[in-house]
Amino acid sequence: MKQPSLLSSLFAGLDQPFRAHLKAPTSAYVHIHAEIVATSPKSSYTQYTIELTNPITNSWRRVTKRYSECYRFRKSLMRMYYSIRRDAEMAPLAELLQRLCLTPFPKRYFESDDAFVRMERTQGLTLFFDMLFALWKDGLRLITQTEVHCILAKWTFIEAMLEAFLDQSLHHKAPTNLDDACAICLGDFEDTVFQLRCGHCFHRDCALHWLVEHATCPLCRQTCNAGDVLSVSAMQPLLRTTSTIAAPAARHHMPSRAVSCIAF
Predict the structure, then answer these.
(1) Are 230 and 259 in contact (CB under 8 A)?
(2) 160 with 209, same domain?
(3) What's the CATH code of the domain at 113?
(4) What are 76-98's pLDDT values in tens digits?
(5) Which residues cross the membrane (predicted)?
(6) How many whole angstroms from its chain centre is CA 227?
(7) Does 204 lie in the same domain as 85?
(8) Is the pLDDT of residue 197 over 90?
(9) Does residue 258 sit in helix, strand or coil?
(10) What are the residues whose beta carbons fall under 8 Å from the beta carbon of 36, sequence distance 6 or more?
(11) pTM for the full model?
């Protein structure tokens, strides 16, 4: 039986941590692909294509970033945290920023990227974007529970930073084919239909009573907690307002300026 060499014995302890560290990252909201972009025959850089499923809007977008852009954005959020952390009035917002700042972030390397660096950054950036969504979600909850003016003003600035950093148009929405029948009752569409956030359309009553029991789209099973009432003729999203779910009723022709029901 072949005996391990002295060199392999010395480095055996390093192999397992590296493999554990290079474990493929997983996230329900973030998927990142690293791509090498050549700028000349002798130089290149790594570009990260990031597909983000926004848990707040139930939509997804694709952004392309370099590691340095993410690094600078995180530094901006850290500077904001350090500027407010000793302010008692800003403590709730500082706590949200602190969670992001304490989250491990991939380190900077001054040599060229290799496979290990790209995997390390892919893993770290996945966690970073997950935490950005957590910050956004918790921040929106915070501003509905506080009347402290300085928190509201600072959050407005933070939200603008987040939107600027992720400023990309939406790339996907399920196709809407109003020539088809309602998938719930199989009846033809009338002038007014109810569109879920995933883009699928149903009769208003059918959708509302389905969501009471299931809270997912009947077709794609995507979680849905809001929707728009659309005019088939104009196909324009209409005014949104809060409503309650009523008992089933006979459908009548509704005016094109019907209102939306988004409180489930």
Answers:
(1) no
(2) no
(3) 3.30.1520.10
(4) 999 999 999 999 999 999 999 99
(5) none
(6) 18
(7) no
(8) no
(9) coil
(10) 44, 45, 46, 47, 113
(11) 0.56
